[in-house]
């Protein structure tokens, strides 16, 4: 069964392509490498041991997307293609409104003319804003978004819900990702941040390898046990597996699931776990709080565990071990870093 992956050469898309093949699906990857590199496709092929179907196309090009869908006839679509840097979205909101909302509408206009069994959307825990109670479950009231990025995910969910209400033959699943980290255990695919990383784990690995002088921990005066923010870090392969299980799920037409391990870890705990598992030291200092950060959020993952029978396999330490192996691979093999 063919599954179209928009942004399939990205961090989560590439890992999902591999997990799809492991479960007998045939991924059709669309990407224009604006946030990735062409070697990712070659490395997906190394992992799966065969060629993968790939189209180098801008997701906003409706004519091309339409002809790919006509040609490939996918039964499902997983829509990863989007921008995701919270800070950048504050500085350049139009880029986010264009790439995350306009392009979503364009894609749906194309899909409108085709029959698709399943549509899966990359949503985010950012839709909860700053929640009034933790852990958040799927019924936790949505608060105003903290950033244009967060707003695009809230609006994206609303657009999809309204659109697929008119198409009851398609099962819609919106996965609210918590903090994806790690890399494939083969060290052939992983995260490829462009420029200075805004996410914690690539910043840690780039500091450990000497590409960055020091990590700044944004705030140590939060009302948490050690004063640093708390998040729910999930291994990217476990997150990828949630997409495959969503495709198999014929539960209902409109599904929303939190995808997190259900455990809050502080920034300092992540840094110390990284140091411990990889037997090294990370140069860090405490700095000001970062605009837009919520103090604490982690998932109530009861729903995805019961309905999709999803369980995370990898621990935080394993994820941090894989992230470090990937960073070293980037430096030694691809001269990135
Ligand atoms: C946010 C979104 C998440 C989204 C992700 C995309 C929320 C709650 N989460 O994640 O849904 O998928 O953006 O990028 O809105 N930190 C440092 N120093 C650094 C970098 C980060 O201390 O150099 C801290 C941050 O302050 C935060 C934690 O590390 O407390 C995680 O930050 P990050 O990896 O950027 O992810 P979020 O902002 O939590």
Description:
- The protein has eleven helices and 13 strands.
- The relative contact order is 0.14.
- It is an alpha/beta fold and 337 residues long.
- The strands form four sheets. Strands 3-2-1-4-5-6-11 form a seven-stranded parallel sheet, with helices on both faces.
- The chain has a domain at 2-181 and 235-260 and 300-313: Rossmann fold.
- The chain binds uridine-diphosphate-N-acetylglucosamine.
- The site of uridine-diphosphate-N-acetylglucosamine (UD1) has 24 residues, from α7 and β8.
* Principal-axes shape call: globular
- Give the CATH architecture of the domain at 2-181 and 235-260 and 300-313: 3-Layer(aba) Sandwich
What separation lies between the terminal Cα atoms? Answer: 38 Å
- Largest sheet: spatial strand order: 3-2-1-4-5-6-11
| Run of helices and strands | EHEHEHEHHEHEEHEEEHEEHEHH
Poorly predicted runs are none
Give the fraction of residues assigned to helices: 40-55%
Q: What is the CATH homology-level superfamily of the domain at 2-181 and 235-260 and 300-313?
A: NAD(P)-binding Rossmann-like Domain
CATH third-level topology of the domain at 2-181 and 235-260 and 300-313: Rossmann fold
What is the multimeric organization of the chains shown? Answer: single chain
């Amino acid at each position: 069964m063919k599954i179209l992956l928009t942004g399939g050469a990205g961090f989560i898309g590439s890992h999902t392509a591999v997990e799809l093949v492991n479960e007998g699906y045939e991924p059709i990857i669309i990407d224009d490498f604006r946030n990735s590199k062409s070697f990712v496709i070659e490395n997906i092929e190394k992992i799966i041991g065969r060629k993968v179907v790939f189209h180098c196309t801008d997701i906003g090009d409706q004519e091309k997307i339409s002809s790919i869908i006509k040609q490939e006839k996918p039964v499902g679509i997983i829509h990863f293609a989007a921008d995701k840097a919270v800070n950048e979205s504050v500085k350049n909101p139009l880029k986010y409104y264009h790439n995350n909302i306009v392009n979503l509408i364009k894609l749906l206009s194309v899909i409108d003319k085709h029959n698709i069994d399943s549509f899966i959307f990359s949503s985010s825990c950012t839709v909860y804003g700053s929640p009034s109670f933790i852990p958040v479950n799927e019924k936790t009231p949505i608060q105003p978004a903290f950033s244009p990025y967060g707003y695009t995910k809230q609006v994206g969910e609303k657009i999809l819900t309204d659109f697929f209400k008119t198409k009851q033959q398609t099962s819609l699943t919106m996965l609210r990702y918590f903090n994806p980290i790690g890399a494939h255990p083969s060290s052939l695919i992983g995260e490829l941040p462009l420029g200075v990383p805004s996410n914690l784990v690539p910043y840690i690995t780039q500091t450990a390898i000497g590409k960055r002088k020091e990590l700044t921990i944004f705030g140590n005066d939060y009302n948490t046990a050690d004063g640093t923010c708390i998040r729910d870090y999930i291994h990217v392969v476990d997150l990828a597996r949630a997409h495959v299980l969503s495709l198999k799920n014929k539960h209902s037409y409109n599904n929303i699931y939190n995808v997190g391990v259900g455990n809050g870890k502080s920034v300092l705990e992540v840094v110390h776990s990284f140091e411990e598992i990889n037997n090294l030291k990370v140069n860090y200092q405490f700095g000001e709080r970062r605009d837009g950060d919520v103090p604490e959020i982690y998932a109530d993952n009861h729903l995805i565990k019961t309905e999709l029978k999803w369980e995370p396999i990898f621990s935080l330490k394993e994820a941090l071990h894989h992230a470090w192996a990937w960073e070293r691979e980037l430096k030694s093999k691809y001269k990135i870093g």
